[in-house]
Each structure stands twice: as C-alpha cells, then as structure tokens.
Amino acid sequence: MKLVDRTLHIDADPEVVYELLTDPAALVRWMAEAAEVDARPGGRIRWTHRNGDACAGEIVELVPGRRVVFTYGWERADVGVPPGSTIVDITLTPTAGGTELHLVHRGLAGPMADAHDGGWSNYLARLAVVAEGGDPGPDPLEGERVPRAIDLGLEP
Questions:
Q1: Does 40 reside within a domain?
Q2: Which of 18, 73, 112, 133 is an S-S bond match for 108, by CB 3.0 to 4.6 Å?
Q3: CA 144 to chain centre
Q4: pLDDT for the residue numbered 33
Q5: Domain hosting residue 35, numbered range
Q6: For the domain that residue 9 is a member of, what is the CATH number?
Q7: Phi/psi at 122 (5° precision)
C-alpha cells in the first residue's frame, strides 16, 4: 500500500477550511455536484462528482477547526476501492497567515494511490481558492472517470 500525502497553505482561518470539508453546501462549491455529510463520528459521508462517480464512507473523527478523519471508497465496484476501505486523515493547523492543511490517504494500492494523488491535488487546490474567497471555475477533472482497477493492473 502507498500513501497519498499532501500539504498546502491556505490563506483562510482553520474554521473556514473545516466548514468547506464538513458542510454539504460548501463541498459542492469546490468538489462535488451533490454531497451528504452527517457531521458526527459514525455519520455517513457521500459525494457525487459531476461525471456521476460517487464515493462514500463514514466519519471516524471530527475536531472542529482542526481535524477530519473518514473512511472512503468508490461505489463503482470496478474501481476496486469499496466504500469504507481506505482512510483519509485531514489535519488543519493554524498559521500566522491562515491554515496549513495536511492530508494523508491510506490504504490504496500503488497505481490507485497515484491516481488519487492527482485527484486530491486538483481538489485541494480548488478548496484553497474557495476558502480564500475565489471562484475555482470549471473542474478540470469533471469529465474524467475514476480508473478501473483492471486498467491499473490491479484486481478489482
């Protein structure tokens, strides 16, 4: 298994970034076409991208303004990453100029981790734009489908 590990600085308070991660109405501004978040440990999360692919999981831990941890996976069986099979851990650290966001996504096989690294890079950049008061514009990944496991040399 390989980690996706991303860190970026966002010129916004941690509370603003936290809301963009946990409020369904905020999630659709930077990541998804539709989102459901039951913001409590054990609560369900689900978001659907504009291409129709949906991912789902369960919230493991929430620390308002500081941390969001959830299980994660795709509803499409051919992706080979079923809902709840991986863990996303996001830590928000206040800085003098805003927030340092650190995301670690665990439990993905090498080629699938590489695919998700590109996705997280795109979506975290979009999150930063929205948190800083901007408009992220059209999603460059909007028309792309999540790769099938078999296309990456993995067993689904």
A1: yes
A2: 112
A3: 16
A4: 93
A5: 2-135
A6: 3.30.530.20
A7: -60, -50
Considering the domain boundaries, does residue 156 fall inside one?
no
pLDDT at 15: 98
> Among candidates 16, 4, 3, which has minimal Cα distance to 118?
4
Q: Would 152 be classed as within a structural domain? A: no
Q: What is the pLDDT of residue 36?
A: 97
109: left (phi over 0), alpha (psi -120 to 50) or beta: beta
pLDDT at 57: 98
Intervals of the chain under pLDDT 70: 148-150, 154-156
Q: What pLDDT does residue 149 have?
A: 64
Closest by CA to 55, choosing from 46, 64, 63, is 46
**What phi and psi, each to the nearest 5 degrees, are found at residue 50?**
-60, -20
Structure confidence at residue 156 (pLDDT): 55
The total number of structural domains in the chain stands at 1
Strand blocks (E) in 42-148 = 44-48, 54-63, 67-74, 86-95, 98-108
